[in-house]
Amino acid sequence: MRLRNALGEAREVAGPDAWVLEPSPPAVSEPPFFADDPVASGDLDWVQWVGTDADRAAWAGERWLAAWPRLGAAPATLVETRKALHRLACYVMTPARLRANGKIGLRWTLGGFGTPFFGNGAQGRISRAGVIVQGHDAAACEPITTLAGAAQFVLGGPPDAEWPSQIGVHDCPELGDVNAPLGVDPDAVAFLGAWYGFAWSVLEEFRTDAASGDASRVQLWPEHFDASVGPFPGEPRATFGFSPGDGSYAQPYVYVSVEGDVTGELWNATFNGAVLPLRELVDADDQRATALEFFRLRRSALREH
After folding, report:
1. What are the pLDDT digits (tens) for 147-171?
2. For the segment 10-33, what is each residue's pLDDT rounded down to a tens digit?
3. Same domain, 158 and 233
4. 232 inside domain
5. Domain limit, last residue, from 131, 155, 186
6. Residue 249's domain spans which residues?
7. Do 193 and 152 belong to one domain?
8. What single string gives the DSSP state of each residue in the chain?
9. Is residue 149 located within the same domain as residue 209?
């Protein structure tokens, strides 16, 4: 398997002002985030770049940079696959990064999710092809079989079930039988990869709104398996994110979660906040604009409250 440098690939095809949503080497060794900032890498307008040559659309769309593909309905196998990948995220992928720099945030990667680069140019990621481990000079892939098998490949040992309690994280899924086959459907993995890619394309644009200030990075939190950003400095505490589904909502949804009570027609969630379910997003004429409007309208309402 070839080594991937997402930013390097982009600059080969689009020039030195390109930027990408995926993690790219080298590993960042400075706090607070210990990870690259996707939107700080360049000033290229991807929509304009695609508009000058129709043949560029597939390349940019696959990477959620422009010519964005449409999200479809979730496959029937999504829930089982999501639960399996959630366990992989918590007990295999997260510990790999945590041991290097004390951070647990994950990111969208091409066709799936994974870690930012850490240590000596290392990265772990998941795609429909399987579990991928990349070092500074080589990359290898193994199919997804069991939690124990993935941990041996990525961590060189058993799944790490101790880290959540060690740092005070309480919402990870149950470890379960580490030797049982993981029910992972490649089509559902691809759907989740598209869901997180869509999420990153929306959240990075939302994060860089002119009035956003010094927002936190967009991260995929392993304990919830949500991609989110926020709170924004100086504003009511709210998190803006994308969930692949959970115990309350089986299907994926976009959400705003607010610290404190909120009332009114904008706030329809079972928690303090609002949700935009996948079925409504799938039917929207412009899916990204719909998600961005969902966030911006509620952020504006919170500011005015």
Report:
1. 999 999 999 999 999 999 999 999 9
2. 999 999 999 999 999 999 999 989
3. no
4. yes
5. 186
6. 189-304
7. no
8. -----HHHHHHHHH-TT---SS--SSPP-STTT-S--GGGS----HHHHHHT-GGGHHHHHHTTSSSPPPP-PPPTTHHHHHHHHHHHIIIIIHHHHHHHHS---BEEETTEEEPPPBTTTBEEEEETTEEEEE-SS-EEEE---BHHHHHHHHHSSS---SHHHHHT---PPP---TTSBP---HHHHHHHHHHHHHHHHHHHHHHTSTT--SPPPPEEETTTTEEEE-PPTTS--EEEEEE---SS-SS-EEEEEESS---STT--SSSSEEEEEHHHHHH-SSHHHHHHHHHHHHHHHHHH-
9. no
Residue 1: inside a domain, yes or no? no
- Amino acid residing at 90: C
Enter the tokens of residue 123: 């990265």
Q: How many domains does the chain have?
A: 2
Shared domain check, 211 and 139: no
The reply to whether the predicted model has a pTM over 0.85 is: yes
Same domain for 284 and 196?
yes
